[in-house]
Design a protein that fits this description.
Helix content: over 70%
Order of helices and strands: HHHHHH
Shape: rod-shaped
Strand content: under 5%
Number of domains: 2
Number of strands: 0
Length: 149
Amino acid sequence: MKWIFFILFIITNLTIITYVITSIYLRFSKARDIKIREQIINFPNYHGLLEYYMLRAYTIIYQDRILVYSMEPSQLPKHEYENATKAFGTLVLKMVGPRITEELVSFYGNIDTLLFVITEYFNERYENDEIRKTNMNQIMEQDGISAED
């Protein structure tokens, strides 16, 4: 008889422990799902905030490291370009701050993806540098070379 009560006691405790663990897991997974859903819904806000700080950081890096080469017009040497890219990524994350950085890392999945997005923004802005293009076209026109060639 004692064994039956002991076995019932163990089964009851195991059931209670399983219920508690399952309810905790479901609570955390629901909270995570809610956070992901909110991030997707608020994507324009996240992206707008990130883009604002990337534009500000690009302006700073451009004036500090790229403008001289754009006026000449020439491209940055490879090591300067790499340094400017790293400085840009670091500056964006500093300007955004640690709390928003955590949110963005959570949204993009990991820091590498976030840095890839930031770097691609820098690359696109650098490749479409209007000052360098205008100066290059002026030099080509002076030399008698058509910009369309």
